[in-house]
Design brief:
- The protein contains 11 helices and 10 strands.
- By secondary structure, the protein is α/β, with parallel strands linked by helices.
- The chain folds into 2 domains: about 10-130, Aldolase class I (TIM Barrel, Alpha-Beta Barrel), CATH 3.20.20.70; about 155-285, Alpha-Beta Barrel (TIM Barrel).
- Strands 3-4-5-6-7-10 form a 6-stranded mixed beta sheet. It has a two-stranded antiparallel ribbon with strand order 1-2. The protein has a two-stranded antiparallel sheet with strand order 8-9.
- Helix 4 (about 105-120) links the parallel strand 5 (about 95-100) and strand 6.
- It is elongated, with a radius of gyration of 20 Å.
- The structure holds zinc ion.
- Zinc ion binds near residues 192 and 193.
- Zinc ion binds near residues 184, 185, 188 and 192.
Length: about 290
Amino acid sequence: MRTGLVSKEGAALVVIDIQEKLGADIIMTLDECIAPGNSFNAAEEAVKRTFQWAEKCRRKHEGSKKLIFGIVQGGMFPVLRYKSASEITSLDFNGYAIGGLSLGEPKQMTWSIVDETISYLPETKPRYLMGMGSPEDIVEGVSKGIDLFDSALPTRVARNGGLFTIYGRKNIRNASYSMQSDPIDPECDCYTCRNFTVAYLHHLFKSEELLAFRLASIHNVRFIINTDITFFSSGHFEQDASGTNNTFANMYNQGMNTQLTILGEKGVNGFLFRNSFKSYSNLYLASL
Ligand SMILES: [Zn+2]
């Protein structure tokens, strides 16, 4: 059956080609992600299709020097998560992603499925939680053994005036910020905090000046980066060994972030940062 220009069967192969051409360092297989309210049968069908596509992608990728990750689906059904994880890990990918979460289901359910799924994934390979990237999600995810995240949330929240701080999220549009002459976070070393006051940012948002979006995004991305620096200063994580950190720094300096990725525990250089991240996370979560 054909849908648009590419058959469903061919789509799995096309996504590999596209990612190769884009120069992706980590190629993701094609998967079917279903909404949380879908039936068991629909979720089972998606697991089946996801495995078929993963097999095709794996074969197509043979001989490539790029890494390739498989994606586990299964909706909100633990038995299907087990089935999908068993099938996907049988294909021996370089890492494994947990997909199909944070789509509107209750947070408690999200983490319950993460707990269920991660127990079936090998600890010797990176484990990637797709589409989640708030400070508190990263903290929670790393504490559970997640190594990799991706999310547009920090910059999307910023564009709506939500600014991350160690004391929780500030809504810069609130009138209470109209006269504050401090930076968003006096401890933050970002361009925004070093050059602008809370009152000025408040003014930019109220005036709908486009600069507001950029300044707020710079701060939120820096806030996320600083969580990594907490690892580095703990002595468990060699900054020089981290290509990831350099990528963050480059992205940040260019102010071009629309999406960011964090490598946490064992993703780069070992298995040791969980405890230091946990200390930080307790501080952050306690402040919410
Ligand atoms: Zn800042």
